[in-house]
Amino acid sequence: MKETENIFLNLINQHKAIIHKISKMYMNDAEDQRDLFQEIILQLWKAYPTFKGNSKFTTWMYRVCLNTALVYFKKDNKKVDKAPLDENIDVMDINENEGKEEKLTYLYTAVQELNAIEKALIFLFLENQSHRDIAGNLGISEVNARVKLNRTKEKLQFIIKKNGYEF
Amino acid sequence: MNFDDIKNEWNAESSEGNNISTDMLKIKQANTPIDKIRAKMKHEFYYQLFFLLLMVFIPFLAGFSTAIKQVYLITYATTCGFTAYYFFKFYTFYKNSYDMSMDTRKNILWFYYEMKLNVELYKALTYIIAFIAVGFMSAYLFIEKASVFAKILTNLSPVFLILNCFITILIIGVITELWAWFYYGRYLKQVKKVVDELDYE
């Protein structure tokens, strides 16, 4: 068990940027981002026995992370069953990145106006997933994925412009 | 700025901060709508158990006659039977684990229908218990308060009585639906919203 835990943690730590990015896309508030981050780790750990190594670890991870974010329900009571977060995880602070990653700051602000599926589409697109991979992850047809992604990109472009940034 | 610029920055964004530790794996309480419903159903099970135990004392506290005690015993046994059946179903739901590694459509539909099914089961149990309670109250009035009840019946028109029954059923229905919606509806609504977003052409 300890060995499985170590292998899992090693893999997750290598790819934790995926979880950070999804948390920031799906939650606006820093505390909610931490909660979602924690929830994703928990769901990844619970689902880990289903990872048979037939696909890349990141492919499996994208699905679990996105599915968790899609059905995640904000906690009613923030004090419920939490690990000492401040000591264990640091969700990247948007303010810290201001200046050096200004474009991403605009992106994270703009995606808050997208719906849950549109966020998933943009996330997979930014992760360099092909239309086929996006379709496979979301369980929709390739044509549908292409159409939805194009619409979402147009919508995102419009939101970024509306927010006063040249696109 | 264009999408290529965003992609470049996105891919360059590294994950700062400490590594994820084993403490993060020790948390037991998940926060999906399914887990929320399961937690509420678990609480309801304890409440239900408490009320069933409390019901044992009602005949002694209310001073029922032998005749109504027998009716009460049948009512109690029926209630216990239905509750046990439905809570077995809820227990199966409780123990049925979900697979988050399925594709999003399969995953979200599994969540939606599993939740919907259990909310419907919950409503069915509430209806059954409410009708058993109404049935027992009627039997109580017939047996224990026969003279008063007969007087009331003779003074009321059949149309009024039928209307009364209809309104009682309607009230039970409205309360059950509202209670189920208040208790579980928002979780269903959230998942349904994602299903609709996925299906939107």
TrEMBL record, chain A:
<keyword id="KW-0240">DNA-directed RNA polymerase</keyword>
<feature type="domain" description="RNA polymerase sigma-70 region 2">
    <location>
        <begin position="11"/>
        <end position="77"/>
    </location>
</feature>
<dbReference type="Pfam" id="PF04542">
    <property type="entry name" value="Sigma70_r2"/>
</dbReference>
<dbReference type="GO" id="GO:0006352">
    <property type="term" value="P:DNA-templated transcription initiation"/>
</dbReference>
<dbReference type="InterPro" id="IPR013325">
    <property type="entry name" value="RNA_pol_sigma_r2"/>
</dbReference>
<dbReference type="Pfam" id="PF08281">
    <property type="entry name" value="Sigma70_r4_2"/>
</dbReference>
<dbReference type="GO" id="GO:0003677">
    <property type="term" value="F:DNA binding"/>
</dbReference>
<dbReference type="GO" id="GO:0000428">
    <property type="term" value="C:DNA-directed RNA polymerase complex"/>
</dbReference>
<protein>
    <submittedName>
        <fullName>DNA-directed RNA polymerase sigma-70 factor</fullName>
    </submittedName>
</protein>
<comment type="similarity">
    <text>Belongs to the sigma-70 factor family. ECF subfamily.</text>
</comment>
<dbReference type="InterPro" id="IPR014284">
    <property type="entry name" value="RNA_pol_sigma-70_dom"/>
</dbReference>
<feature type="domain" description="RNA polymerase sigma factor 70 region 4 type 2">
    <location>
        <begin position="106"/>
        <end position="156"/>
    </location>
</feature>
<dbReference type="GO" id="GO:0016987">
    <property type="term" value="F:sigma factor activity"/>
</dbReference>
<dbReference type="InterPro" id="IPR013249">
    <property type="entry name" value="RNA_pol_sigma70_r4_t2"/>
</dbReference>
<dbReference type="InterPro" id="IPR036388">
    <property type="entry name" value="WH-like_DNA-bd_sf"/>
</dbReference>
<keyword id="KW-0804">Transcription</keyword>
<dbReference type="InterPro" id="IPR013324">
    <property type="entry name" value="RNA_pol_sigma_r3/r4-like"/>
</dbReference>
<dbReference type="InterPro" id="IPR007627">
    <property type="entry name" value="RNA_pol_sigma70_r2"/>
</dbReference>
<dbReference type="InterPro" id="IPR039425">
    <property type="entry name" value="RNA_pol_sigma-70-like"/>
</dbReference>
<keyword id="KW-0805">Transcription regulation</keyword>
<keyword id="KW-0731">Sigma factor</keyword>
UniProtKB/TrEMBL annotation, chain B:
<protein>
    <submittedName>
        <fullName>Ca2+/Na+ antiporter</fullName>
    </submittedName>
</protein>
<keyword id="KW-1133">Transmembrane helix</keyword>
<keyword id="KW-0812">Transmembrane</keyword>
<feature type="transmembrane region" description="Helical">
    <location>
        <begin position="70"/>
        <end position="88"/>
    </location>
</feature>
<keyword id="KW-0472">Membrane</keyword>
<feature type="transmembrane region" description="Helical">
    <location>
        <begin position="159"/>
        <end position="184"/>
    </location>
</feature>
<feature type="transmembrane region" description="Helical">
    <location>
        <begin position="45"/>
        <end position="64"/>
    </location>
</feature>
<feature type="transmembrane region" description="Helical">
    <location>
        <begin position="124"/>
        <end position="143"/>
    </location>
</feature>
